[in-house]
Design brief:
This protein has 448 residues and is α+β, with helices and mostly antiparallel strands. It has 15 helices and 22 strands. It is elongated. It starts with a helix and ends with a strand.
Length: 448
């Protein structure tokens, strides 16, 4: 049995490239069977292990028993151990979270701090994966819920994710290794424990290889899910504009891609993930398909989706872009404005051929005051002359003509000096400042 579990854990580590030979790894050690077995296996496989134990302060004498057991185990093995104590019940009240959520968040926070760049191994097993899939299934879920527990998530690795709890307990018994049991795991008071003690045994009667079957299911779903996520990210990048997203590519994409892209759009805009559901995605898709070119939709967290002709943007209600300004020198290469758009200014090579666009243009050095050169938000009195024959027009009217949403107008970067506007991101340069005959400055905004 020992050889089998070591081989299984080694194969899992290799399959997902969790660790390199001899790498340092921090083990999240509760003292339960799963984490004790993981500590022993990783140590036996040649990895340099240290351990971390969190006493949650929730189970009184039992919690102190667990801490004492972990200290004794690590001392006997010569494994470096860090122990932290937290009042999770008080923390949950302070943060207005459930005790389970507060404990999980604090545990991962401390693990990250004490790992100091090392990988962090948690002892999730094939049984945990089964329970997670069934838990999500009973609540109603999409592909991500059915994908179960990922073998890796950033620096977090799960070497036991393909090993069953029965294999773990047999391994510990064969080695005469003791462990502690959390009494709260033995009750059927919560949904997950009922799934563990009542549902999973029945399913194992139908298929004794339930862990392997669910493991195959979650692997396949994760593969498909990762591919669809990649395609959705590509779609969103293609739709991205300075002042929002193009409606057409999001509207015309197949529903699986459109819905994922919209979820990503909401997340990147700051809309709380936990409060975003399928209903919001369907309403967003209706907004994209609407014939009304100027509609809006209320979203969780005080956010709104705003449709402005062929663009859509998500903004927080009641917020405005504060005034901003930055002095410029030449050359300049850096991020400017609330959207951190990359701006570059440099002296152009002599006789350089320019391909003008809304975001790349030359200006004549003799027609600007370099000492007062700035990039800033627009002012009410700003004007710009975009054509040689026409006169100057206010930025407000130009932005309305270009269908730039009201909330986005103050976000666009304006390059100016003491004489007025020189160029505007997404609109162009003032004709009175242009020219390539003499010494020229090339201005370029990165993006569309």
């Amino acid at each position: 049995m020992e050889h089998n579990i070591l081989e299984r854990v080694g194969q899992t580590v290799a399959r997902y490239q969790m660790l390199t030979p001899g790498e340092n790894v921090l083990v999240a050690l509760s003292g339960g069977a799963d984490s004790v077995a993981m500590l022993l296996c990783l140590r036996e496989l040649g990895y340099l292990v240290s351990a971390f134990h969190l006493n949650h302060g929730l189970r009184g004498d039992e919690a102190m028993r667990d801490e004492a057991f972990v200290r004794s185990l690590c001392a006997g093995l010569g494994v470096p151990l860090t122990v932290a104590r937290e009042n999770i019940a008080a923390l949950a009240v302070e943060r207005k979270e459930s005790i389970e959520t507060a404990a999980r968040v604090k545990r991962y926070q401390l693990l990250g701090e004490y790992a100091a760049g090392k990988k962090i191994a948690t002892a999730h097993t094939a049984d945990d994966n089964i329970e997670t899939v069934l838990f999500h299934l009973t609540r109603g879920t999409g592909a991500k819920g059915l994908a179960g527990i990922p073998p890796m998530r950033g620096a977090i690795i799960r070497p036991m994710i393909e090993t069953s709890r029965s294999q773990i307990e047999a391994y510990l018994k064969d080695n005469g290794q003791a462990f502690v049991t959390d009494s709260t795991n033995l009750t059927t008071d919560c949904t997950r424990n009922r799934i563990r003690h009542e549902v999973v045994p029945i399913l194992r009667q139908l298929n004794p290889e339930l862990g392997e079957a669910v493991g195959r299911l979650t692997r396949l779903i994760r593969q498909d899910d990762a591919y669809l996520d990649f395609q959705a990210e590509t779609l969103l990048r293609r739709a991205r504009q300075i002042d929002g997203y193009l409606v057409q590519p999001l509207r015309e994409a197949p529903h699986p891609l459109s819905s994922r892209a919209l979820r990503l759009l909401l997340a990147q805009s700051g809309v709380p993930r936990a409060q975003t559901g399928e209903t919001h995605i369907l309403l967003l898709q209706k907004l994209l398909a609407s014939e009304n070119p100027s509609a809006s939709l209320n979203l969780p967290g005080g956010y709104s989706a705003l449709r402005n002709y062929e663009k859509i943007a998500v903004t927080r209600e009641g917020t405005t872009t504060a005034w901003w300004e930055k002095r410029l020198s030449i050359p300049f290469d850096g991020a400017v404005g609330p959207d951190e758009v990359r701006l570059t200014l440099r002296f152009a090579e002599k006789n350089k051929v320019f391909y003008k666009s809304f975001n790349t243009f030359p200006v004549d050095c003799g027609k600007i005051d370099i000492e007062t050169l700035t990039v800033r938000a627009r002012k009410p009195e700003d004007r710009l002359r975009l054509t040689e024959r026409g006169g100057s027009r206010s930025l407000k009217k130009l932005m309305i003509d270009r269908r730039i949403p009201r909330f986005a107008r103050a976000r666009l970067a304006v390059i100016a000096d003491k004489y007025g506007v020189i160029a505007v991101q997404g609109l162009g340069a003032d004709q009175s400042r242009g020219g390539t005959d003499g010494k020229t400055i090339e201005i370029h905004f990165e993006g569309k």
